[in-house]
Amino acid sequence: MIESPNATTSSRGEWSLADSVKPYHRHVFACTGERSWPARLEDAPGLLGAMARDVRDLREAEGPIPKLTATDEPSRGPWIDLLVFPEAVRYRVADFAAWRTVLAGHLRGGGRPSLESEALPGRHVFVCVHMARDERCGNCGPPLRAAIEAAVARRGLVDVTVRATSHVGGHKYAGNVIVYPEGVWYGYVRPDDAERLVSEHLVAGRILEDLHRGGMQDRPRSPGSGE
Fold first, then answer.
1. Is the distance from CB of 97 to CB of 135 less than 8 angstroms?
2. Same fold, 26-119 and 123-215
3. Class of domain 123-215
4. Could you tell me if 212 and 206 are in contact, meaning their C-beta atoms sit under 8 angstroms apart?
5. Distance between CA atoms of 26 and 19, rounded to whole angstroms?
6. Which residues of the chain have pLDDT under 70?
7. Strand 66-71 and strand 26-31: pairing?
8. Among 15, 49, 77, 112, which is most exposed with the fewest C-beta within 10 angstroms?
9. Where are the domains positioned within the chain?
10. Beta bridge partners of 92
């Protein structure tokens, strides 16, 4: 059980972290096996770009709001693996029709479509490293990810996976970290925070109040929230 604090303001940056996460209901990560994503995923070729455009077009729609980013984890075959949170499920998406099935059936509908899938056990930490979108994330992200991975290894946490991700929203809050399945967001995270993130959040179940941006919640959008 994660202990949730009251919203706070970090002293590290110019902007308040409190309520800086735009509302969304599910987060899907496309496994691309690389980090050379275009500045906007909507401009990516093939299926990745098509998926990103579909999600973009739903931002102002009624009903559940999905969020899509890319991760550098490779897919396990000639398709795109999708990691969906908070349910922690992996889908194999081979074509546009399969993507639309996941979009309508799970991301928007909340059910489980009849596609091959598997559960994703454990905890999942995502660090934004998207240099093409903003150099702050591109510079902050890689050393932060390495520091978190090292802290996880020192603790022997074999059920924790640390991945890089494309733009999640709010590059001005770099380094940005998201922890799933609980869907907790952190900003202004530095490599020297890695041990505290692991010991306090991943082990003890306590949110780091001074770095907390918000999370996967349905609430009004805050003025000045990151894009």
1. no
2. yes
3. alpha beta
4. no
5. 17
6. 1-13, 217-227
7. parallel
8. 77
9. 26-119, 123-215
10. 81
Contact criterion met (CB below 8 Å) for 115 and 102: yes
**What is the sign, positive or negative, of the torsion defined by CA atoms of 214, 215, 219, 221?**
positive
How would you list the strands of the sheet with 89-93, edge to edge? 117-119, 89-93, 80-85, 26-31, 66-71, 160-165, 123-128, 177-180, 184-186, 212-215
pLDDT tens across 34-71, in order?
A: 999 999 999 999 999 999 999 999 987 888 889 999 99
pTM of the model: 0.89
Is 26-119 CATH 3.40.30?
yes
Can you tell me which residue has the tokens 């919203």? 7
Helix (H) or strand (E) holding 100: helix 96-102
The sign of the torsion formed by the CA atoms of 129, 134, 136, 138 equals: positive
Residue 125's DSSP bridge partners are 162, 179
From the number of C-beta atoms within 10 Å of its C-beta (0-12, 13-18, 19+), residue 61 rates as exposed
Using an 8 Å Cβ cutoff, are 100 and 50 in contact?
no
> Looking at the DSSP assignment, which residues form a beta bridge with residue 28?
68, 84
Residue where the block lists tokens 């992996």:
90
